[in-house]
Every structure is written in C-alpha cells, then in structure tokens.
From TrEMBL:
Pathway: Amino-acid biosynthesis; L-phenylalanine biosynthesis; phenylpyruvate from prephenate: step 1/1. CDD domains: ACT_CM-PDT (cd04905), PBP2_Sa-PDT_like (cd13633). Transmembrane segments: none annotated. Residues 198-275 form the ACT domain. GO terms for molecular function: prephenate dehydratase activity. Pfam families: ACT (PF01842), PDT (PF00800). GO terms for cellular component: cytoplasm. The record marks 174 as: Essential for prephenate dehydratase activity. It comes from the Bacteria. This is Prephenate dehydratase. GO terms for biological process: L-phenylalanine biosynthetic process. The keyword Transferase does not apply. The keyword Amino-acid biosynthesis applies.
Length: 282
C-alpha cells in the first residue's frame, strides 16, 4: 500500500488531516520535519504528504511556502481543513501554578498566547517540532512540564487535560495541503467549480504589474483566496508571490486569465488545481 507522510509523531493535527484525506487507503508515515516530507515525495518514499499551509488565526506557515517555491517537482493535489482545538496536557493532578514550562509547536503556542498570558505568565515557553512531540516529551518528565495538544495526544501519551479548549479563538481552523509528484487528474467537469488553483510567480519589475495581474483575474470574475509574498532570496526587495484562486485551469475564463498573467511574469508555475475541502471555514 502507498504511504502518506505527515508531521509526527502520532497524535498531531497533521495526522488528523492525513487520516481525514486518505482514509484507509494509505499507510500513515510520521516524519520529523516539513523538509523531510518534501524529501520523501522527491525520493518516492511516500506517495503523498500533508502539511499545514495556513491557519485562520495565525496566518501562513512560511516554511511550507518556501519549500513549495524551492521544490518545483512537487505539486499540490488536494487540501483538508481541520478544526484545531487545543488542550493543556500534563500529569494528573498538576495545578497551573506548578507548571514551569509549556512545550508545543510554535503555531500552537501562538494560537494560545492569550490563555498563556492570563493563566501561565510565570511559565517558560519551549518550541518543539510538533504538538504530539511535546506531549511525548512531557510524558517522560516530571509534573513541572505541560504541553499543548489535542485529544489524540492526550490519550496516546496518557496525559490529563489540565484545561480544555485553550485556543484564543474558538473558530480556529488550519488548511493543510496534500502534496505529490503528480497531481490527480480531475475528470468530472462539475468538479471544476469547486476547485482551487495555486500559483507561484515572480513578476516583471515595473509600476503596476501586480495591479495588472489582479485586473486580469477581476475582469473575468475570478475570486482570489490568498496572496502572499516571500523574499526571492536573490537580493533585497525581490519577492515571489503565492496566489490561490477559485477555479480550475480547464475552465476557459481561468485559462484565459492565466495566459494573460503569464505575460506579466518572469517565472510562472501552476503548483496545483485541486478540489477544495467542502468544510466551510476559510
Ligand atoms: O504540531 C502539530 O500537531 C501539527 O500538525 C502542526 C500544527 C500545529 C498547530 C496547529 C496546526 C498544525
């Protein structure tokens, strides 16, 4: 059976996303970093990889954008939206006053910063590779350490939920992308309307180029769902743009718009046309 790589160990939000996307059709393969998931795709060790791309409260996971920019053989073939609900995990009977350090993934710590400053301002924060890694570490240590993670991490690592639902925003969603070497071909024409197209571009350095690009989309009624710039890493002030839009390249208006957009770019790459997750959250 083919494998799907995700940020492990067992009990992460990424595992939840991988399970929800792949069901029982793939073997779950926990990986230690986002970089190693890309590596697994390139070397064919895994067929699919799942990575968080953006969160409704904390925004983009920039490392994942940078990896997409640097690995032009990798495509986006799908997405999954996961509701993120964090708990403070610790040893049974630990009081908040006893907690000296809180371990978690940087996104989880950021998503709970209001809770932490209200109830745990005395504690040190320690960033680790993932929420489940934090849970696994503290399960081996004394009661002065706590982790932020989900229900699965709590049961898997035999930890108590010292406080539940501690994220600052109840409506906390993360959009995960599913990557592969080749994207799945969508056959059903009716699926085009529920598709998303992701692009990477670097644009001609002239006044109004970005405006002109957006105009080509606007003129054809194409909805932009994300635009983000990252340093091109060539010289100061040079950027590449990540654009997500509603629609599929096989739709005439999208095809036409992108043909016009391409003329305004130095580099133009479609990283994927894929089905949007139907869960309405972003
Ligand atoms: O650490 C995890 O569980 C991950 O999968 C990364 C992450 C962390 C916080 C919110 C969403 C994803």
């Amino acid at each position: 059976m083919k494998k799907i790589g995700y940020l492990g160990p067992e009990g992460t939000y990424s595992e939840k996303a991988a399970k929800s996307y792949a069901g029982l059709s793939y073997i779950l393969k926990p990986c230690t970093t986002f970089d190693s998931i890309f590596e697994g795709i390139i070397t064919n060790e895994v067929a699919l990889g799942v990575l968080p791309l953006e969160n409704s409260c904390e925004g983009t996971v920039v490392r994942v954008l940078d990896l997409l920019a640097r690995n032009d053989k990798v495509k986006i073939t799908g997405e999954v939206v996961v509701h993120v609900c964090h708990h403070l995990l610790g040893h049974p009977g630990t009081s908040l006053a006893e907690v000296q350090s809180i371990l978690s993934h940087p996104q989880a710590l950021a998503q709970c910063s209001g809770f932490i400053s209200k109830y745990l301002s005395h504690a040190k924060l320690q960033e680790v590779e993932s929420t489940a890694r934090a849970a696994s570490i503290i399960s081996e240590c004394g009661p002065s350490l706590a982790a932020i993670g989900n229900d699965e991490a709590s049961s898997r690592y035999n930890l108590s939920k010292l406080m539940t639902n501690i994220q600052d925003m109840a409506e906390n969603y993360t959009r995960f992308i599913v990557i592969a070497k080749e994207q799945q071909i969508m056959v059903e024409t009716e699926e085009y309307a529920n598709s998303r197209t992701s692009l990477i571009l670097s644009i001609v350095d002239q006044p109004g180029t970005l405006y002109e690009i957006l105009k080509q989309l606007a003129l054809r009624g194409i909805n932009l769902t994300k635009i983000e710039s990252r340093p091109a890493r060539t010289r100061l002030g040079e950027y590449i743009f990540f654009i997500d839009l509603d629609g599929h390249i096989n739709q005439p208006q999208v095809c036409e718009a992108l043909a016009e957009v391409k003329k305004l770019t130095v580099e133009f790459r479609i990283i994927g046309c894929y089905a949007k997750d139907k869960e309405k959250s972003l």
